[in-house]
Amino acid sequence: MNEVHTPCLIIGSGPAGYTAAIYASRANLHPVVFEGMQSGGQLTITSMVENFPGYPEGKMGGEIMEDIRRQALRFGADIRTGEILSVDFSKRPFHCVSDDDTHVWAETVIIATGASARWLGLPSEKAYHGSGVSTCATCDGFFYKGKDVAVIGGGDTAAEDATYLAGLCRKVYLIHRRDQLRASQIMQKKVFSTPNIEMVWSHVPVEILGEGDKFSKNVTGIRLLQVESKAEKTLKVDGVFVAIGHHPNTEIFEGQVALDADHYIITEAGTSKTNVPGVFAAGDVQDRRYKQAITAAAGGCRAALDAEHFLLEC
User: Fold this and answer.
1) Are 152 and 205 in contact (CB under 8 A)?
2) Which of 8, 96, 139, 301 is flagged as catalytic?
3) Predicted structure pTM score
4) Is 310 helix (H, G, I), strand (E, B) or coil?
5) Phi and psi (nearest 5°) for 254?
6) Active site residue 96
7) What local confidence, expressed as pLDDT, does residue 214 receive?
8) Contact call for residues 241 and 149 (beta carbons, < 8 A)
9) SS3 278
10) What percentage of the chain reaches a pLDDT higher than 70?
C-alpha cells in the first residue's frame, strides 16, 4: 500500500482540474492530481476548438488540454494517471483511495470530475462523433453555418441548442420521441417562433448516415423511425447534435457532499465551497448551466484560491 500526504488533492483533470493544479502549485500547496478515466476530460474527445481564449486560429481539444497539463507540470503539480475510487470526508485530513491502492491523506480536496454527455447508444453515433456528431452546440455550431442540422431531444437543453443553431444554420430539425416537448414554456415559445426550426414529432433516430473513411468522414443524414407506425424516413443533414442531457460524475461522492436532485454538487453561491469545510468543487461537476471549457477553467482557479484561503485560516 502506498501512502501520499498532501495539502491539496485534485480529483479529475480537464480545464477545471488542470487549472486548479496550476494555481495550487503556484500557491505552494503541492497538489496531487488524479486525472481519472479520461485524462484531460471531455475536451480531449472534441475536434477543433475555436472559442477558447489564446488560440486565435483554433486548436484541437486534446492539444489544448495537453498545453494546460504541461503548464501545471511546469509549476510542480504531481499529476498521476488513474482515478480515485473512494473518499471519506468525515474528518480532516480527508482519506481517499485510488485504483492502484494509493491511500491519499489530504487537508483539502478539489473535485473536478466533470459531467458526461448522455448518448443515444447507436454504433453510428460513435463512428461519427467529432465528424458530424456533437453534444455541444455552442462548441461546434459554427462549423455548420449555413447548413442543415438535426438536434435530438425534448428538454431545455435541446430547445436551447436548437434556437442557438437556428441563428447559424439554414435549417434545424428538432427531433423528439414524443408529441410535445418537455422544455420550459419560455423555451418552447422560442422554438415555435423560430421560422427555420422544424419539429419532427414522435420519431427516434435509428442510424446516423455518412460517408468517407476513418481519416476524412462526414455526416450526410439521419434515419428515423416513427414511434407508432414504425415507418422510416431519412433527413438530409450535415450535422447531428445529441441534446438529451448530461450526468455529473459524482457517484463516489454520494453521502459525502451535498448533491442536488440531479446529482450535481451543490456549492455556496459565488464560491467553490461545498457543505464540507475543506472540500471544493469546480467545473461541470457543479455547473449545470454553462458547461464550457473556459467556465470550467475559471472554476478551477476559484477552487484553488478557496483552498489556499481555507488553509491559511486553519
Assistant:
1) yes
2) 139
3) 0.78
4) helix
5) -55, 125
6) no
7) 67
8) yes
9) coil
10) 99
Share of the chain above pLDDT 90, in %: 84
Three-class DSSP category at 250? coil
Exposed, middle or buried, 39 (CB in 10 Å: 0-12/13-18/19+)? buried
Decide if 140 is catalytic.
yes
Alpha helical stretches, state H, the chain: 14-26, 61-74, 123-127, 137-140, 156-166, 185-192, 293-313
Q: Is 284 marked active-site?
A: no
- Set out the domains of the chain in order of their start, with CATH numbers: 2-116+246-313 (3.50.50.60), 119-242 (3.50.50.60)
Residue range 134-179, pLDDT digits in tens: 998 988 999 999 999 999 999 988 998 999 999 999 999 999 999 9
Report CA 92 to chain centroid distance, whole Å: 30
Q: Given 67, 100, 101, 136, which residue is catalytic?
A: 136
- In the chain, the amino acid numbered 128 is Y
Instruction: Detail the DSSP E strand segments found in the chain.
Output: 2-11, 32-34, 48-49, 59-60, 78-80, 84-88, 94-98, 102-111, 115-117, 133-134, 148-152, 171-175, 197-200, 203-213, 216-226, 232-236, 239-242, 246-248, 279-281
